[in-house]
Amino acid sequence: xxxxxxxxxxxxxxxxxxxxxxxxxxxxxxxxxxxxxxxxxxxxxxxxxxxxxxxxxxxxxxxxxxxxxxxxxxxxxxxxxxxxxxxxxxxxxxxxxxxxxxxxxxxxxxxxxxxxxxxxxxxxxxxxxxxxxxxxxxxxxxxxxxxxxxxxxxxxxxxxxxxxxxxxxxxxxxxxxxxxxxxxxxxxxxxxxxxxxxxxxxxxxxxxxxxxxxxxxxxxxxxxxxxxxxxxxxxxxxxxxxxxxxxxxxxxxxxxxxxxxxxxxxxxxxxxxxxxxxxxxxxxxxxxxxxxxxxxxxxxxxxxxxxxxxxxxxxxxxxxxxxxxxxxxxxxxxxxxxxxxxxxxxxxxxxxxxxxxxxxxxxxxxxxxxxxxxxxxxxxxxxxxxxxxxxxxxxxxxxxxxxxxxxxxxxxxxxxxxxxxxxxxxxxxxxxxxxxxxxxxxxxxxxxxxxxxxxxxxx
Length: 459
What we know:
By secondary structure, the protein is an alpha+beta fold. It is built from 13 helices and 15 strands.
């Protein structure tokens, strides 16, 4: 793999970052132990497989052209031991200690001289269950691409690729924003078209922005730079039953659960419900099955007012369905969620100069990030140790206090919550509210419906 320019959106994520607002994705993979497999075995396996993934050998370097741009280049001094570490837990509750440690690790920026990723093997000194925390900079990959890269550590993927990780691609020559002299007219027309489309997207983003006060809630508290992690699990089959009973999509159900959990959590902590519904940014992948391979980010997003003011769970779900149907009808180029599309149409210098201003504008656009990350459906393992759960983790933009990420594996929906540690010091209570709200929504939509029909539940 040779030198490759960062795509505009990747460059935006690279420049958005600050010491107190690191822009990395994460995943906490929890494994059951396997007889005869030691932590040192797992650590060696992680290092070997990560080193065999070409993308994980790339670091970011400044370039002369285009002005303000950066490029991916192979780290000639790559040493996997700088990226893969073992951390030993004390005696005590495994998940409680693991999530607390994961929060501390997610606070720390990845640094800017090495390939922007880290893996941490977390477990007890004597073996037992263990976890692997993976951190990938958002410039390196969006959620779907991160899954494709990170999957190379699992036994089943490594067996198919022969330990080589992701398939190697031919080197991509640096792409310049300067036109070829032989094609000046065509390039100029193309740039004019791009500018016109960017203006249209930009106008949509501005129209969707909120410029007045939004109320003092934990979701809009000043950033402290600290991080706290919490997890929750839901029954995927039960999600499908709710969807069949009420219509819409599984994602609609999960968004309604998040809205209800926020309502429950706010009321429990004695916080008044906001006059306006908190806004969620729901990322939308612009990748298409069978489409051209794209190594970086390919995203847009929808905006959704989470109906925390609605007391009835079924009505909250209907409100979410209606809003998401409206979003899909308008398409991913409308609203503040299209800011990622806009970023993808700006030249590198605009990102380098404008990133601090753009990063600070996130709080005007949305209050919470809620994203779904697709995972392989087959059972996965590491060194023969079965994967028990995988909790995705999204980054917090400047001015944001909460990000919620969901993935489905092994018949369970795993929920990873990342929060500002001071603004949401009771994040564990919000995680519990997610599970409680899900149980209540199931009772309202499935159990009550089944009882009305006089029959038993069906899977």
